[in-house]
Amino acid sequence: SQTIHQWPATLVQPVGSPLSLECTVEGTSNPNLYWYRQAAGRGLQLLFYSVGIGQISSEVPQNLSASRPQDRQFILSSKKLLLSDSGFYLCAWSPATGLSYEQYFGPGTRLTVT
Amino acid sequence: GQQLNQSPQSMFIQEGEDVSMNCTSSSIFNTWLWYKQDPGEGPVLLIALYKAGELTSNGRLTAQFGITRKDSFLNISASIPSDVGIYFCAGRRTSGSRLTFGEGTQLTVNP
């Protein structure tokens, strides 16, 4: 069965510091991968998605970047955090082939920028 | 851009009552998904719908893909305290795998 992991679970970082959040998927190959941000427990905003290694699409211009160095690894980064980067970050995966467009979410990372 | 209007934003009900919520859009969607999110956790997929008019159940949950392909409904029968959480609808349009999410319905069940 497939599983998705995110770490860290929680993070408190000062403004201006760098960020690296990691997401890994097990039990599937060549998944589509997604990063979302959720503010105040409502509404999921798609930040990035990837259909393969090194292939990243950005949905909104912002202070963040994403990379996919391996097939089942997706990383969200920032060089300098802003207060507005605080939120709940969710990684998700979906099958790359077939008719299933279902996305499966990880447990999330709670980021607080102080 | 694409938008999904999810209603109601919040619901306060008594245990045992039935619940209905819906999502509407001005655009046609080819896939509708319903998720539930518990506090501090990632959303969990409840039901997936792929055909207009489709009615699918998962235990006490029933969801329908609207015949116009512009809406979807989720019903919960005989609610229990563990139904508390935020319910999200999500839709996929004609191409690609990206989903558009509704703003969520916060459900509170009083014992």
Low-confidence parts of chain A lasting 5 or more residues at pLDDT below 50? none
In sequence order, what are the helices and strands of chain A, one letter per element? EEEEEEEEEEE
Give the class of chain A from helix and strand content and strand pairing. mainly beta
Instruction: Say how many strands of chain B there are.
Output: 11
The overall average pLDDT of chain B, rounded, is: 94
The stretches of 5 or more residues of chain B where confidence is low (pLDDT under 50) are none
Structural class of the secondary structure composition of chain B? Answer: mainly beta
Oligomer state of the chains in this structure: heterodimer
Number of helices of chain B: 0
Q: How confident is the prediction overall: mean pLDDT of chain A?
A: 93
Strand fraction of chain B: over 45%
Radius of gyration of chain A: 14 Å
The SSE order of chain B reads: EEEEEEEEEEE
Work out the helicity level of chain B.
under 10%
Give me some keywords for this one.
heterodimer, A: 114 residues, 11 strands, B: 111 residues
